[in-house]
Amino acid sequence: RKEVEQDPGPFNVPEGATVAFNCTYSNSASQSFFWYRQDCRKEPKLLMSVYSSGNEDGRFTAQLNRASQYISLLIRDSKLSDSATYLCVVMGAGNNNDMRFGAGTRLTVKP
Amino acid sequence: DAGVTQSPTHLIKTRGQQVTLRCSPKSGHDTVSWYQQALGQGPQFIFQYYEEEERQRGNFPDRFSGHQFPNYSSELNVNALLLGDSALYLCASSAFGVTTNEKLFFGSGTQLSVL
Questions:
Q1: Would you call B88 and A98 a contact, using CB atoms and an 8 Å cutoff?
Q2: Cys-Cys crosslink for B91: which of A59, A100, B107, B114, Cβ 3.0 to 4.6 Å?
Q3: pLDDT in tens, A35-87
Q4: B11 close to B19: Cβ distance less than 8 angstroms
Q5: A49 with B102: Cβ contact below 8 A
Q6: B106 at the A interface (CB within 8 A)?
């Protein structure tokens, strides 16, 4: 089983649509969780952290369920500029930055 | 203030050759992590360097080795290249002991093609 698993995608949605991505992780000791965005042939960039209480940043909402080891990302009112690959990232405990990435889900928003 | 810089940006090698990739961390950062990202996959953790020592390692063979210099810059070496080593190699820098992800910065990567 992979450490971090994501919806295989790809997701092709029209502008204005709401789209949700899911992610599960295998290591119950994981402490920190994030969503990264990666544009084609570019480096990953942090989109948002994910907190147990859930958190929102504009059109983006992230949720974490530790009991189910499940993370989600909801994008409302999709824009063309949201087209990218979204990576689910899980980080261990302790003083390290060893991040484990999911394979990513490709999103294409069409006019 | 330069961010994380990697060189070269692109590289073409043949099977069996050796390659060295370089990374200069963001100013003020002392920890460098290397990732391999194959086409259509997420980045996979190779190893992390701090105080010129390998601190953690992912599931990669010994053909993958690294080094960190006193100025915190780092090299990734891959020996006996295989076709499957073709990937985008990403370097990420951070300040040791900082666990918040906002403090982790990626370079733009080196695209390695093995023919």
A1: no
A2: B107
A3: 999 998 889 999 999 988 889 999 999 999 999 999 999 999 999 999 999 99
A4: yes
A5: yes
A6: yes
Model confidence at A8: pLDDT above 90? no
Q: Where are the beta strands (DSSP E) in A30-110?
A: 32-38, 45-50, 55-57, 60-65, 70-75, 84-91, 99-101, 105-110
Q: How many CB atoms lie within 10 A of CB A23?
A: 24
- The string of pLDDT tens digits covering residues B23-66 is 999 998 999 999 999 988 899 989 999 999 998 898 899 999 99
Tokens of B10: 């692109």
User: What is the side-by-side order of every strand in the sheet holding A70-75?
Assistant: A4-6, A19-25, A70-75, A60-65, A55-57
Q: Which residues on B lie below 8 Å from A40 (Cβ)?
A: none
Q: How many helices (DSSP H) and strands (DSSP E) are in chain B? A: 0, 11
B interface test, pick of A31, A97, A101 with most B CB neighbours within 10 Å:
A97
For residue A95, pLDDT over 60 is answered with: no
